[in-house]
């Protein structure tokens, strides 16, 4: 009897490389990890990583987490994040990724919306007590049964995963590895508000393939991932690209330029994946002499409308691939030519690699009737972005939609026919990877007191940055904290004169 074809999962890809080269280096921690989390940096082979994954997976099962339940993860860009994601998948769990910049209110909302059974965090990240944040959010989420943490001085009631890694693995359960099963839940902010976005394994792998094939990432490459992993793009660009290449994944918790350069040279990284503006800044600093091992640079654009006007890439030994990100809806990539300029992106199906005849279709780009950019393809979660049912038409079937409207304003260039992305979705701001409705600023400003000002200014690196003015900046931070803003977000508040 013939068995039906089963698409691979992320754990399937990991175990393929494990069987082929168990003693090859798999994971490398940031060199400054001791400052970021208090842990010493780790260097793990595939066999060592597999043992750690098996131990964490068994612990999740022994804790009583049922198969297909949701486990939320709020971790920095370190080895613990990779191990936890793969362990959750091996235990048959669905991972919900929670950005580090989230407020307490959003953290609680995400846990409740996904009915998460557990949450995993780090005791501290950059001096901020994430263990306490997780415990407070878990207290308001009725579905949470377990709170796990890495690091020292964990609060009472939080189980230490460092202790789990220090002892032999327990008994795990057999899980059918099928790429069509749910793998992750990320979260987007649209004009309709906060939106959970679930994805199967094959969708994540499709995103990783679109990047790795367009950028021509070689098998066995050492990949430096310097992009926050708490999103679809973050997981696809780090975890999926690494597992597809079967090489080594070096991690950098954003951002310390000197440390990043040291890591790239010390580990002889061949691929750098980073926010595009950071990549362009590195490219202007004699990249061939300072980081000679690099052969590919993948720049991720959180603000894709900025690509066309970006600077010329002047490091021909390591070509730049522009990856256009559209929140959690999807992405596409376009490798720059020898002139270093962004290449025109045409509407319609696009392959990976884009310019290679007969290449596999990575997705499709289209212009919607509203003059916005639409996406369809294997990586695009169409159901998650389905428009709300009109009031009063609950019994009327809505016409099917086979694409996601990203909300980004776009038009066709008359001369070339290429897609021109002109503006981000109306009413949405982004500070780094943190997206919020512009109306939220009014509520935040109101809490700052009489005569205060808070606004989001365009920023080439992070999309927007918060800027403000208040008579008492100490009171301003206190008010923002009372509102529930994450402490890292509060630190983004600065007086316009430059004083903190």
TrEMBL record:
<dbReference type="GO" id="GO:0006631">
    <property type="term" value="P:fatty acid metabolic process"/>
</dbReference>
<dbReference type="InterPro" id="IPR000873">
    <property type="entry name" value="AMP-dep_synth/lig_dom"/>
</dbReference>
<protein>
    <submittedName>
        <fullName>AMP-dependent synthetase</fullName>
    </submittedName>
</protein>
<dbReference type="Pfam" id="PF00501">
    <property type="entry name" value="AMP-binding"/>
</dbReference>
<dbReference type="InterPro" id="IPR042099">
    <property type="entry name" value="ANL_N_sf"/>
</dbReference>
<feature type="domain" description="AMP-dependent synthetase/ligase">
    <location>
        <begin position="14"/>
        <end position="331"/>
    </location>
</feature>
<dbReference type="GO" id="GO:0031956">
    <property type="term" value="F:medium-chain fatty acid-CoA ligase activity"/>
</dbReference>
<comment type="similarity">
    <text>Belongs to the ATP-dependent AMP-binding enzyme family.</text>
</comment>
